[in-house]
Amino acid sequence: AKENGRGKFCVFAAEMNQRVFEYLWLDTNLRKALEQDHLTVFYQPKLDSDGVVRSAEALVRWNSPERGMVSPADFIPYAEESGLIVPLGRWVMLTVLRQILAWREQGINLRVAVNVSARQLIDQSIYSDLKLALMDSGLAECPIDIELTESCLIENEAQALTLMKQFQELGAQVHLDDFGTGYSSLSQLARVPINAIKLDQSFIRNINEQPVSQSLVRAIVAVAKALTLQVIAEGIETKAEEEFVLLNGVDGRQGYFYAKPMPAEQLGHWLAKHPA
Ligand code: C2E
Ligand code: CA
Ligand code: CA
Ligand code: CA
To answer: Does the pTM of the predicted model rise above 0.80?
Structure first.
């Protein structure tokens, strides 16, 4: 038993070591990646209820010389913890705005939704950055939307609500991301200034074999409709999943079934091949 206990401790220590090592690796290299332009933004089309693509979601990627393409799932949590998410998020926002302007030159008129995490919202500079960049761009209206998760509401709710309203006044739509995975209740939806909820992928996964998920989606859509909020389904991978959301009043859809996130030029080609 003694040996067993010690063995467990060793495994635990090894895991700790691994995590510390990973943290230090990210601490040196993510900062460098940001400075050396090793980050890139991919875009995934979002279809409106009529099937037309009027917007795309910006999803950051890290092209590491050492590790290849690193998923944001592996470095965003670290960036949030270290505070690096603030300059990283500013870089994403400015890169997206520049891309939108480049697309306009090519006759492509697209809105882009940017993911913003709680830490960025608390910092507040993301809002002033956007406002300044918009003034600089000469655009008459804001072509950027904001995707926030429920966790943004937990840390400093009053401040989060104020910023959400300010984003809306600027002309950005505010979407509540990963809806249904956090702690917020349906009744909370009535008092947050949002335009849409994005149903979490876990609801859509195998929806046709999940009667409970089906009922939940119907209930969420009903409440959202009553509050005049749009509902967007993400993670649609199959025809059957698409049919379910179309049949149940979901407004927007997104997923590998239509397109994976891709580099900006590729999205230009994709749009040309997928006219409404
Ligand atoms: P998210 O905002 O919930 O984004 C959706 C994720 O699901 C993306 O993963 C997307 O590539 C993936 N996805 C889209 N369609 C499908 C599908 O049909 N099936 C499956 N299995 N997956 C699909 P990705 O790009 O790895 O991003 C992961 C998360 O990282 C995002 O989740 C978001 O929370 C965060 N993230 C990405 N870019 C940024 C950013 O610029 N700033 C911040 N703060 N967070 C970001
Ligand atoms: Ca998102
Ligand atoms: Ca999501
Ligand atoms: Ca997510």
So the answer is: yes
Q: Under a CB-based contact definition with an 8 Å cutoff, are residues 144 and 114 in contact?
A: yes
Number of residues assigned to the chain: 276
Compute the distance from residue 198 Cα to the ligand 3 centre, in Å.
7
Q: Is the dihedral of CA 166, 89, 128, 159 positive or negative?
A: positive
- pLDDT tier at 34, thresholds 50, 70, 90: very high
C-alpha span between 242 and 87 (Å, rounded): 37
Which residue's CA is the closest to the ligand 1 atom numbered 22? 235
Which of 158, 147, 79 has the alpha carbon at shortest distance from 119?
Answer: 79
- At residue 184, the 3 state secondary structure works out as coil
Whether 241 is in the pocket of ligand 1, judged by its Cβ within 6 Å, is no
SS3 content of the chain, % helix, strand, coil (to 5): 55, 20, 25
For residue 126, which amino acid is it?
Answer: I
Mean pLDDT calculated for residue range 205-216: 92
Atom of ligand 1 nearest to the CA of 261: 11
**Would you call 82 exposed, middle or buried from its count of C-beta atoms within 10 A (0-12, 13-18, 19+)?**
middle
Residue 2 has pLDDT above 80, yes or no: no
Identify the bridge partners of residue 223 per DSSP, sorted by sequence position: none
Q: How far apart are CA 177 and CA 105, in angstroms?
A: 30
Q: Which region among 148-152, 166-170, 207-211 has the lowest average model confidence (pLDDT)? A: 148-152
